[in-house]
């Protein structure tokens, strides 16, 4: 029997999971207008498929409208074709639904543009691991470790290019069977679209070769974690870079300086959205090259926000390449929701005329609390519960989002925490490994 080609309409939800509904490919034109039906309470499906307390119950109807600009149509083998489109959740009247993560990012990007007249250009770096035991030990950054998975790496990079992304690099990372994949920066919501597409195609490419890939924040507390690093820069209406200023602190323009200051000020309150799993906080500890404090670093991989080095020499190329990197994130977060929180924090910094602190150059874990506080530095929340408390405690931060979002998000995450209540840390890591 000839198979019917299907397209999967999808959204990356609060749990960072990609969910949706498939329709016949020859129905595409009408689905771009009418979408597919969706249910409000779906927002409360956790990453473990439990359903948190929902204000919607069994009531309500929504639409999931696919966006042809956020599509992937990739064949990894004769019998394995991936065709999906990311989209927006709307009301039946076509208005953005308040709890649609993609719509929340669009609102944050509009705020940034309205505030500063700039557009965000960004890219997500991803680390992932393969579940099978490594064929060779002691392969950190190694050529042999790469060669052992060359077919997977080449398959994945080809898939990303086929999907319209700009593959930049892929490498054998430090950890066991750990790899890092990077794509080029793009403007606006498309960057988060690409992050979702990359994660899904990585899993698909691995599956097509008999492997299983996981983006879990950390698989083993005694080993490394898998982070997501978000690189950001700004362009004006003419597409010209406005991130760099030779005379600015660490080379940052006034916009970049104020944006960075906002991110750092509100980072303790947004980290529940960018590192949203119970085990995220096992990774976010000192000396893991992740982020433990709300500090600015100049080429420092222990900083929560890093001013990145450039390799260009001429002024125009330096201006294009210059960027800042948010490091307190992982793939348990929806890229839309994580980026929305960061952009809102940065826009707040611009609106309030904040100035970024001086970059740190020492081991902050050796400094006492009084010294840190005198420099405006705090230890980031050390548990998901503490991070959620900090999120809810900031009327400024919760005010960036639709009025019911904070309540819904807390209930969602409380259900996730409850699912793990009787597990030790090893079991928690295994649970997240299986779902991400």
Structure description:
By secondary structure, this protein is of the alpha+beta class. The protein has 2 domains: 6-96, Roll (Ubiquitin-like (UB roll)); 104-128 and 182-187 and 217-435, Glutamine synthetase/guanido kinase, catalytic domain (Creatine Kinase, Chain A, domain 2, 2-Layer Sandwich). Helix content is 36%, strand content 21%. It contains 14 helices and 14 strands. The strands form 2 sheets. Strands 6, 7, 8, 9, 10, 11, 12, 13 and 14 form a 9-stranded mixed β-sheet that branches. A 5-stranded mixed β-sheet has the order 2-1-5-4-3, sandwiched between helices. A hairpin with a 5-residue loop joins strand 1 (6-12) and strand 2 (18-24). Helix 6 (254-274) crosses helix 9 (335-351). The longest helix has 21 residues, at 254-274. The mean pLDDT is 95.
Summed up:
By secondary structure, the chain is α+β, with helices and mostly antiparallel strands. The chain has helices spanning 28-34, 101-116, 143-147, 150-162, 190-208, 254-274, 280-283, 315-321, 335-351, 369-374, 384-393, 395-398, 405-419, 425-435, and strands spanning 6-12, 18-24, 36-38, 62-77, 80-90, 119-130, 167-172, 178-183, 186-187, 213-214, 228-235, 296-298, 305-307, 324-329. The chain has 2 domains: 6-96, Glutamine synthetase, N-terminal domain (Ubiquitin-like (UB roll), Roll), CATH 3.10.20.70; 104-128 and 182-187 and 217-435, Glutamine synthetase/guanido kinase, catalytic domain (Creatine Kinase, Chain A, domain 2, 2-Layer Sandwich), CATH 3.30.590.
């Amino acid at each position: 029997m000839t198979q019917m080609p299907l397209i999967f309409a999808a959204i990356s939800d609060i749990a960072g999971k990609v969910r949706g509904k498939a329709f016949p490919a020859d129905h595409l034109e009408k689905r771009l207008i009418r979408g597919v039906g969706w249910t409000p309470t779906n927002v409360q499906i956790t990453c473990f498929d439990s359903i948190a307390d929902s204000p919607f119950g069994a009531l309500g109807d929504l639409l999931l409208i696919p966006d042809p600009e956020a599509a992937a149509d990739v064949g990894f083998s004769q019998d394995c074709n991936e065709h999906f489109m990311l989209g927006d959740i709307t009301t039946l009247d076509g208005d953005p639904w308040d709890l649609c993560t993609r719509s929340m990012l669009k609102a944050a990007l509009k705020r940034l543009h309205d505030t500063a007249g700039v557009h965000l250009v960004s890219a997500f770096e991803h680390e992932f691991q393969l579940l099978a035991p490594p064929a060779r030990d002691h392969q950190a950054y190694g050529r042999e470790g790469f060669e052992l998975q060359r077919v997977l790496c080449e398959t994945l990079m080809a898939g990303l290019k086929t999907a319209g992304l700009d593959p930049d690099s892929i490498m054998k990372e430090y950890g066991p069977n750990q790899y890092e994949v990077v794509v080029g920066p793009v403007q606006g919501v498309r960057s988060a679209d690409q992050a979702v597409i990359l994660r899904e195609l990585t899993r698909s490419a691995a599956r097509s070769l008999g492997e299983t890939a996981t983006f879990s924040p950390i698989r083993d507390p005694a080993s490394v974690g898998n982070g997501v690093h978000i690189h950001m820069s700004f362009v004006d209406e003419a597409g010209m870079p406005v991130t760099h200023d030779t005379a600015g602190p660490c080379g940052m323009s006034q916009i970049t300086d104020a944006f960075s200051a906002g991110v750092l000020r509100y980072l303790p309150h947004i980290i529940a959205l960018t590192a949203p799993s119970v085990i995220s906080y096992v990774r976010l500890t000192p000396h893991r090259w992740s982020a433990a404090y709300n500090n600015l670093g100049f080429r420092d991989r222990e900083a929560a926000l890093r001013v990145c080095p450039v390799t260009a020499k001429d002024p125009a190329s330096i201006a294009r390449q210059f960027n800042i990197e948010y490091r307190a994130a992982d793939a348990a977060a929806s890229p839309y929701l994580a980026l929305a929180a960061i952009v809102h924090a940065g826009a707040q910094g611009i609106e309030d005329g904040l100035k970024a602190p001086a970059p740190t150059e020492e081991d902050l874990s050796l400094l006492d609390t009084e010294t840190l506080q005198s420099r405006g530095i705090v230890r980031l929340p050390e548990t998901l519960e503490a991070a959620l408390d900090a999120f809810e405690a900031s009327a400024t931060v919760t005010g960036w989002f639709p009025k019911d979002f904070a309540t819904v998000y807390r209930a969602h995450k409380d259900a996730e925490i409850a699912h793990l209540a009787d597990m030790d840390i090893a079991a928690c890591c295994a649970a997240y490994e299986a779902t991400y």
